[in-house]
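To assess whether ligand presence alters the predicted conformation, the chain was also submitted together with EPU. Input:
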Amino acid sequence: MSRLKITGGKTLSGTINISGAKNSAVALLPAAILAKSKCKIYKVPKIRDIEYLLKILEVLGCTYKIEEDQIEIDTTNLKNAPVPEELSQQMRASYYFMGTLLARFKRAEICFPGGCNFGSRPIDLHIKGFEALGAKVEIIKSRYIITAKKLVGARIYLDFASVGATINIMLAATYAKGQTIIENAAREPEIINVASFLINMGCKITGAGTSTIIIEGSEELDNGVVEVFPDRIEAATYVIMGALCGKNLHIKGIIKDHINATLIKLKDVGCEFKATNDEVVISKCKKIMPTDVHTQVFPGFPTDVQQVFTVLLTQAKGKSHISENIYELRFESAMLLNKMGADTYANKNVLTINGPTKLRGANLTVPDLRGGAALVLGALIAKGDTILDNIPLILRGYEDIVEKLSNVGAKIEIIE
Ligand code: EPU
């Protein structure tokens, strides 16, 4: 099994170009089957989740052509097959086929989704949304069987502004009869990205990016074209890396508004950088101050960035806190940073970080995607070598991470 070897202590400079966003792309591929004959998606990242989604599309009778980072999908021969368990369990986003198969066939059969493990991750809000549109949802063994005689638009209030539920209900509503209104919808950029794809296919949607989304059901959607937004989590990860060990490190191809919460926190702790609409230039922050971070839905500080931000706070002088308000168990990587010399402890959903601490290389097993990224950052500033196991979890979300980091001067390689 391959592992990642990182030798710490290098200064990183040069340019890192940000890839298309995982969490947009993994919704856009399932959305493709809403098109009756074909559609095209630009700037698709080469990550493992995409490989599995393409396999699911094949099972459903679709064909596709890949040219560099563009994928053209032909849905002419789409058929309603059950999504195999070994594919759906590879990632969380396989659940978007519930919404799109339901929309196209009024029936979806799919196993429980997979994804990173940080506590219970229910999908009750997705289910409630499908039911509100007129579907019946049964769970037989580990399969969801979702059926509807017809889908009729409805007014749906989400108890929590869930990204997945907002997108899934929006997808299912595209072919419902009449108008669907999603209230307390999530406002993450991924939702705007998916809505713009659906609008491009011919669907009438207003309000994406706000708390109220209105979808007018259609009879025929086709020929959608969309470009995946830059990955805001990858961008935030590398900007934080620049604050740890960069020298004029350019993070390029971002949308600044999508990473504002991270940039504001970096300013709070004393980091200096130059930011334009599509680029951040950052160098190692010499004096890092402690802070308190509360994870929130967009535009708040993202849960997906807190693990990486923790590494920065291990270098702050004093006590910092991270309150994780989205997922109950997302501190496993902090416990692993302790094995590198960090001083953190978790009490329920609050992590306390005492700094500054000198980190040293260690042999560790990656616990989850963003936790893996945090360990990579820890390894880059640690003394000595770090060996990371279970690296497919990192490759799930960071396109070409080894090449991107090597190109700016990191000593990082995949070893057998
Ligand atoms: N929730 C429910 N019921 C639901 C849906 C969600 O209780 O039906 C709860 C979850 O348990 C969680 C909170 O609501 O406590 C947020 O969940 P949300 O649905 O917003 O998250 P998600 O759609 O499952 C996506 C990303 C995650 C990211 C979150 C939050 C994808 C495939 N995943 O998950 O990405 O952390 O939004 O922004 O888009 C990652 O990239 O590492 C990752 C985990």
